[in-house]
Amino acid sequence: MSQSCFTISLDFELHWGGFEKWALAKHRNYFLNTRKVIPEILMAFKNYQVHATWATVGLLLHRHQEELKSVFPQLIPTYDQPVLGVSHYMSHHQIGIREEQDPYHYAPSVIQKIVATEGQELASHTYAHYYCNEPGQTPEQFKADADAWNKAAEPFGVKTCSLVFPRNQFNRDYLQVCKQVGIKIIRTNPVDWWWKIDSTQRESKWKRFNRGFDAYFSIGGKTSYPLSSIQQNEGVWHLPASRLLRPYSSKEFVLNQIKINRIKGEMTLAAKNNECYHLWWHPHNFGGDPSKNIEGLVQILEHYKYLNQTYSMISLNMQEIASRLENA
User: Fold this and answer.
1) pLDDT tens for residues 207-265?
2) Is the CB of residue 252 less than 8 Å from the CB of residue 213?
3) pTM for the whole structure
4) Measured between alpha carbons, how far is 268 from 313 in angstroms, rounded to an integer?
5) Which residues, other chains included, contact 322 with Cβ-Cβ below 8 Å and sequence gap of 6+?
6) By the 8 A CB rule, do 84 and 92 touch?
7) Which of 24, 204, 208, 234 is least enclosed, having the fewest CB within 10 Å?
């Protein structure tokens, strides 16, 4: 348990990650770029022997609309703001019949590539991008959503072990439900106050500013931790995130490299102290400039290779970490 480790989790959503705020007509190329860059990410992980968890919205798992209809839960979240619900979106916007017609809302071919790549874990990002801290929804509705994810994943031979809460809306009250549906480990937020997210609908600009500023300049707390410090609550392990890998921006010039160097420095500190470092992002974050984002990722993976050779740092996905914690 004293060995250092590097873990990556990705929130795979496509348009389901922001259907209530993203006009699809303006984002089609963005999501098509995302689909094209995922095989490049997988190849980079394979080349550097990096294991990762792909927390995936369950709706993406479906092959066609009839399958979606057969799995979609009857008990849906009763948000005070109905626009946050997938059912509300689908009642006002027609989605396609299958992946070939609608690659923004279906992705079984992409998911098959993830499952087929060594060291990659297919995990839950809830079935319908469920918001656990938004007023109006209930634990019973969350349970129905979680059951739907497991059913949608059956054709891929997967039952969820790991969960990432959408929009990082961690809700301790739902841990019992997580355990009931087979979830053993969840990603929790970084320790800093600006990562405490009660609702994305009422979040202050000051919080968002601090999250962005901290990506480049050290204003937050320590980002790595020993595996032995990971706590279990209601039978579910809590794996803290360390750092969000923010996407490349042509407007940021030298700040892009400062951001990568900061991550590498934090990884080095974790390796030297036999601690865990947990990097996360959304695959669609790479959709704006795929080549530059892959370039930055390769820098990070090259650094992991150095730390693996120099300090014996290992790469583990969330499921593998849960197994180690259970066997410790």
Assistant:
1) 454 555 455 556 556 789 999 999 999 999 999 999 999 999 887 778 889 999 999 99
2) no
3) 0.93
4) 10
5) 161, 162, 184, 185, 237
6) no
7) 204
Q: pLDDT tens for residues 38-79? A: 999 999 999 999 999 999 999 999 999 999 999 999 999 999
Rounded to 10°, the helix 290-311/24-47 angle is 30
User: Per residue, what are the HEC states of 154-170?
Assistant: HHHCCCCCEEECHHHCC
- 247: DSSP letter: P
Domain boundaries, the chain: 5-327
Contacts of 54 (CB under 8 A, 6+ apart): 9, 10, 12, 111, 114, 120, 121, 122, 123
Using only the alpha carbons of the chain, give its radius of gyration. 19
Quote the tokens at residue 125: 């990002």
DSSP element (H, E) containing 54: strand 52-56
Chain centroid to CA 3 = 24
Closest by Cα among 134, 16, 2 to 77: 134
* Structure tokens belonging to residue 96: 């396609």
Coarse DSSP helix, strand, coil percentages of the chain, rounded to the nearest 5 percent: 50, 15, 40
Taking alpha carbons only, the member of 238, 259, 239 closest to residue 249 is: 259
Kindly state which CATH superfamily the domain 5-327 is placed in. Answer: Glycoside hydrolase/deacetylase (3.20.20.370)
Who contacts 61 (Cβ-Cβ below 8 Å, separation ≥6)? 107, 108, 111, 152, 153, 155, 156
Q: What would the pLDDT profile of 121-151 be if each residue is shown by its tens digit?
A: 999 999 999 999 999 999 999 999 999 999 9
